[in-house]
Amino acid sequence: MLAGLKNSATAPVPHESEIPATNRRQFLKASAAVGAGLVIGVVLPQAGNKIAKAAAPAGTAAPVNPNAFVRIAPDSSVTVLIKHIEFGQGTYTGLATLVAEELDADWSQMRAEHAPADATLYNNLHWGPVQGTGGSSSTANSYTQMRQAGAGARALLVLAAADLWGVPAGEITVAKGVVSHAASGNTAGFGELAERAAEMDAPAEVTLKDPADFTLIGKDVPRLDSRAKTRGEAIYTMDKTLPGMLTAVLARPPVFGATLASFDDTAARAVPGVTDVVAVPQGVAVLAEGYWAAKNGRDALDIVWDETTGETRGSAEIMAEYKGLADQPGDMVRSEGAVEEALASAATVLEADYEFPFLAHAPMEPLDCLVQLGPDSCDVWTGSQIPTVDHGAATAISGLKPEQVRVHTLLAGGSFGRRATPNADMVSEAVSVAKAIDGRAPVKVIWTREDDIQGGRYRPMYFQRLRAGLDAEGNLVAWHHRIVGQSIIRNTPFADALIKNGIDQTSVEGANNLPYAIPNMAVDLHTTDVNVPVLWWRAVGSTHTAYSTEAFLDELAEAAGRDPVEFRMAMLKDHPRHAAVLKLAAEKAGWGSPLPEGRSRGVAVHESFASYVAQVAEVSIDGDGQIKVEKVVCAVDCGLAVNPDVVKAQMEGGIGYGLGAILHDAITLDGGRVEQSNFHDYLPLRINEMPEVEVHIVPSAELPTGVGEPGTPPVGPAVANAVYAATGRRIRQLPMALHGLTGA
Hints:
Strand order of the largest sheet: 10-11-8-18-15-16-17
CATH topology of the largest domain: Aldehyde Oxidoreductase, domain 4
Mean pLDDT: 92
Shape: globular
Number of strands: 30
Oligomer: single chain
């Protein structure tokens, strides 16, 4: 059989984009029938072999391998097992690019699928023994690891070819998915060598390419997931079904912290299609043969809630408490020099208060989770952002052993942090409901849009007070920043890692590492207790600290009689990457050049997730207070851009997401009840509001850093500063709609 490999090269298999929609499923079935030949990785060969064997269809050769990152099939297709969820940020494409580069594969060969939930193999290298996606870390923490996986696979293929052809390994080359030996004329595709490669001893070390030799990294390779998504063929949790599946919709307490007292399900059970009504720790679940029956049944419940332990305050009352706390010193976060003395002797002192509301994540695909519970197994299908946490919750609730629980990560229609709850809320609900009916049927729990908007896990409400002093020459000599708000980390499994000396680092990021050279600086924090569940939201603490610091800096620049860009640049001499993006954005935006009548500019620069972003916003405002953000020029330094087109897309998406928040988004409470319920009163940015976005990537040889979130923080203050330039109004309370300024 092996003799036929000489002088033959396997043609690349069709890329997903080349598969006709009418027979894609037949293609996948045929591919599965062929089986996989090799799974490659970096470490832990036995674990990789077990996964490969479990994945092999009956009657086919099981893939064998040193690990579980790269799978090479007999048809020469290369599947990269992605340990981070793909929810639109380009993880499938980015991580597959790293493997393909070192493997010298042709891009048409590449495939991607989510890795199984197994933190021993697939942990986030930035998070320790936890598998998860967040903090804009997917590419940053996987960059070297995935390149090593690709290089390891290549090395094994080369060894296999050398063994097969009886030639020195050093004479063998690999290019575009073909292994060749020039002297003998022998060639082979990856698939033809996979079985033999699986028998080779993996090299202890592999040599990675010099970046000068990259052919894929740094290029705009097509996304692996685009065609399936645009054709409606990609499978999300909302699409996933199982035979006999029931749909569940829950009634949850109307105020946070309330508990179930009693309920009457007579009317709910009378709804056609309703099969069960069960009480679970999270509320009351109505199960039915379809979604609408379940929802109508849920709406027909007559429930009495005990609200004695619930949050009964409104947003105004909570903010009033925050303002009172801001009059007192908080826990010290950063202290340099003598701030109070410097303020007392300053030629000019400015003070400003900033108010930030609760914000919902509002992903386009509402929360959902499918569970099949058996006497000795529990399978969970969901867009899992932290599989380790979701697996732990499913294990605890089901009462099964960890090895009996499997979490299958599916594509997700957005998250922005919402699918990464420390208590695994959507998984906990689904397993609880399945257990309540004794696993009689698979159960899919679906949150309605209203459930999601009103269900908590918000970006916290914050109040911030900033004071600063200028000397007679207009130099910033003192800075004091006080932050008041909830901790998203307190009472979670992440508290030990992220709360130091009582300080939740996510509350103060962006303030505690302010890059400007200010001789006297202090940052302190009041952490509040509010019975509203809160969570990380795209860019986390930087979503509010960037706004307050960069908007206040503009006020100081004006008081000093200095240009806002020059004022910042003068204080960034020790931070060249901040300065470089600020300079680039200003140049590309034509900072200082005349604008058409009725337009104005504003600028902001911010570092988050080790990436540096500067933005110049150009806005117009009509006589009715309609804001039109006409253009945003964005400069980003994210280290090496693995795929520049994906980086640009993430900057564009982050800008759009941030604009919706600062223009008109807010979650408000009245007597503890959330007032918003859907997209009619909690408005994501509309397509007509999206500005022209121009993204410029700073060339860099540094390791890649985050791109999923850093585009969001600077857009708010850049727009606010432009609004001031146009109107003379400082917007210190968000959203801008509160001040009669709305998106056009």
